[in-house]
Specification:
globular; single chain; 2 domains; 3 helices; Nucleoside Triphosphate Pyrophosphohydrolase; about 20% helix; 7-stranded mixed β-sheet; alpha+beta; about 190 residues
Amino acid sequence: MDDRNAQLSAPLHRIVSERVLARGHAFSFVELQVRSPDGAYTNQIVRHPGAVTILALTSDPEPRVVFVENYRASVDRRVLELPAGKLDEGEDPSRCAHRELIEETGYEAGRIERLGEVLTSPGLTDERMYLFLAQDLRQVGARPEDDEDLIVRSIPVDSCLDMARRGEIEDAKSALTILLAHAQGKLALAEGAP
């Protein structure tokens, strides 16, 4: 049993077979046959290689968080997000965070620290998202992938924290990473800010 879930009960269900229904360039859509104490059932999920989200902090003249406005076809509009990306096969999450930050924003991190990891939507996918804080940034030039339509923005730390608290950051991975970094004392707020 995974140490993170040591307090949870042992599962009464188990996967007995898996069939790939479709393969995409990054994900697979699979059908699972699951056995339970009450019988068997099928469940369709997305198999995902994992991903990273990076909270990148600039420091001059004031601390700012680097975001991207990313066109998302699933909602047919731009979404304000922290830089993020999919792990390549066998890739270390920290290496992926360094690579994605450069690709999407043009910033290279002098320091990168893992804040945690989460399952993004376990009812739909097995995707594990690794959350990072990147600091000591220097601009080296963005290298977006061909299908990426990104606009880089930076927002003062106080403002982005307020936006996350008010639910104005729709992208869940971004809001969670900001709030987690704040809860861990990693975001430097202006004097007198809550």
